[in-house]
Amino acid sequence: MKDARSIIRQPLITEKATGGIDDDGIYVFKVDKTANKIEIKAAVEEIFDVVVKKVNTSNQTGKRKRLGKAIGFTKGYKKAIVTLVPGHKIDIL
User: Fold this and answer.
1) Spatial distance between the Cα atoms of 49 and 39, rounded to a whole number of angstroms
2) Which in 20, 25, 51, 74 has the greatest CB count within 10 A?
């Protein structure tokens, strides 16, 4: 298994992602593209000392960008939506 800090890249702080923090205990992270749900769960539990209830993942594709005639894409990433057991909390903000 990889190092926990290399699996969890950064928290994803958006209006939609921070909406579930207070009530539902849902947190969103950018994670390593090769990490699976089991590795993500173990990494979050190790780094933040909490108990994870479930993990959902999705691959976000890069957006199409254009510079003159050239067309390219921004870099994509993998997003993990982590739900904690009630009573546990992560202090991100």
Assistant:
1) 15
2) 25
pTM of the model: 0.87
Of 3, 4, 88, whose CA–CA distance to 43 is shortest? 4
Instruction: Report whether 52 contacts 14 (CB < 8 A).
Output: no
Query: For residues 33 and 40, what is the distance between their CA atoms, to the nearest angstrom?
Result: 11
Where does residue 52 rank: exposed (0-12), middle (13-18), buried (19+ CB within 10 A)? buried
The two three-digit tokens of residue 37, written as one number: 């749900």
Give the pLDDT mean for 32-37. Answer: 95
Q: State yes or no: pLDDT of 20 exceeds 80.
A: no
